[in-house]
Design goal:
single chain; alpha/beta; TIM Barrel; 2 domains; 8-stranded mixed beta barrel; 9 strands; globular; EC 3.2.1.17; lysozyme activity; GH; signal; glycosidase
Length: about 280
């Protein structure tokens, strides 16, 4: 690969032997070639610090990375969630540490898919976990129906095998702009209902809704507690107040140390029942 200094030398050498018009054209061609040769390589798309489960909530809401939970191990089930920035996950190790379910990011908006989805989704299943997929919503990019269909078409479906959870819809602070996506509470309610109804029509299950109380009550006017299980995000020693419309949480994301950790609100038999539908 030529360096910029080599390219500059080539330009000076050629300028000395050419007409003004020729020198001008050559300078432009060599400069363009050098800019391409020396441009940094573009990285493969990853989620990194942006659109992953709770990434924006952690930016805007208080965080206690190591809460003292004191959960009843007979009445709750520990789990985790992952996305592309974790790469290939050592699932056997996490299963050995007691994790019994995992949610894996499948898609975002209507154009992004997790390049590690197959290893993460199938790997968690292969070691004995109950697994599910989630979609990071970008409501101002396309309709709820379009994103639900994209999610189902790219790994977010459901099967009645007893070890696959219904897909989850991650709706939280906008990572790319205004917190509520420059949409009204009624418009966001309509969008979420469109996603939920489309997912139900495609799979026979209503999606789990992941959100935080602060974001939901600020941005969404409607309620979904009678149809959609709640996955609450709150990094403290209790789930606290729930979003408008829900009386019960099903999952709780309570810390991101050393990765996103979650709890199912019930015994293992209850988690299995949710997977069975």
């Amino acid at each position: 690969m030529r360096s910029r200094s080599t390219c500059s030398t080539t330009i000076r050498e050629c300028e000395a032997t050419m007409t003004a018009r020729g020198r001008s054209a050559l300078v432009m061609m060599v400069a363009l070639a050098c800019s391409v040769l020396t441009a940094p390589a573009q990285a493969s798309p990853t989620d990194e610090d942006n659109a992953t489960l709770g990434s924006q909530i952690r930016k805007f809401e208080p965080l206690d990375p190591l809460p003292d939970l004191n959960l009843d191990p007979l009445a709750t089930v520990p789990g985790m969630d992952v996305a592309s920035y974790q790469g290939n996950v050592d699932w056997a190790s996490w299963y050995g540490q007691g994790k019994r379910f995992a949610y894996v990011k499948a898609t975002e908006s209507h154009s992004y898919t997790n390049p590690y989805f197959a290893q993460q989704y199938n790997g968690s299943y292969d070691v004995g976990m109950i697994r599910g997929a989630y979609h990071f919503a970008i409501p101002n990019a396309s309709s709820g129906a379009a994103q639900a269909n994209y999610f189902v078409d790219n790994g977010g479906g459901w099967s009645a095998d007893g070890r696959t959870l219904p897909g989850a819809l991650d709706v939280e602070y906008n990572p790319y702009g205004q917190a509520c996506y420059d949409m009204s509470g009624d418009a966001l309610t309509t969008w979420i209902k469109d996603f939920s109804d489309t997912y139900h029509a495609r799979t026979g299950r209503y999606p789990v809704i992941y959100t935080s109380t602060n974001w939901w009550n600020q941005c969404v006017s409607g309620t979904f507690g009678t149809t959609n299980p709640l996955w609450i995000a709150r990094y403290a020693d209790s789930p606290g107040e729930l979003p408008r419309g829900w009386l019960l949480w099903t999952f709780w994301q309570h810390t991101s140390d050393p990765l996103d950790q979650n709890t199912f609100n019930g015994p293992l038999s209850g988690l299995q029942a949710l997977a069975h539908g």
